[in-house]
Amino acid sequence: VDSVFDFIKWFLIGIFLILLFYFIYSNGYIKFGKRNKNLTKEQGITWDEISLDSDIIKKKIQELIAQGNYNEAFRLNYIRILKLLEKHKLIKIRPEKTNYDYLSELKSSDLKNSFNSLTILFDYIVYGAFNIGNEQYKRGESFINKIEKISQKNS
Fold first, then answer.
1. What pLDDT digit, counting tens, does each position of 69-82 carry?
2. Residue 116 CB: number of other CB atoms within 10 A?
3. Contact status, residue 116 vs residue 101, Cβ threshold 8 Å
4. What does the H/E/C string look like for the chain?
5. CA–CA separation, 85 vs 10, rounded Å?
């Protein structure tokens, strides 16, 4: 009788672990193989947006600010900063890299600190779906301006 209860107990534990793993895997918390190169806007940045010309991005940012769409303007500004850092040969943009991979590529501690602060804001705004207004956008913009100045000195 004890062996039957032990079997049932371990069987249920096994089923629970399989279901838990399936839930974690199916919701994207664990990925096997190559990362998805076709990210959606809800996931942050698309590869197509990375390939856009910086002038087109700047124009779109101004349009979005005029419309009061600060979240999207901030997201595009982050893309613009990634492109700027790559232009100055401070990072190499690749679809499989995360924002924290780019952070680890930066050598200057001032640049690293500013980019880290900007990335934390980016994560809250884009992945956390945290709606921002003009005041919060300006705060992020101060990090962007600082990164622009530092990256020009370090290139």
1. 999 999 999 989 99
2. 15
3. no
4. CHHHHHHHHHHHHHHHHHHHHHHHHHCCCCCCCCCCCCCCHHHCCCHHHHCCCHHHHHHHHHHHHHHCCHHHHHHHHHHHHHHHHHHCCCCCCCCCCCHHHHHHHCCCHHHHHHHHHHHHHHHHHHHCCCCCCHHHHHHHHHHHHHHHHHHHHHC
5. 53
Q: Which residues of the chain have pLDDT under 70?
A: 1, 25-52, 155
80 near 88, Cβ under 8 Å?
A: no
Asked if residues 67 and 98 have their Cβ atoms less than 8 Å apart, the reply is no
Tell which phi-psi region holds residue 28, choosing left (phi > 0), alpha (psi between -120 and 50) or beta: left
Mean pLDDT of the chain: 82
Residue 100 burial (CB count, 10 A) = 11
- Give CA separation, 134 vs 20, 56, 70, in Å: 41, 22, 7
Give which of 98, 91, 89 is closest to 45, Cα–Cα.
Answer: 98
Q: Is the pTM of this model over 0.90?
A: no
Would you state the pLDDT for residue 65?
Answer: 94
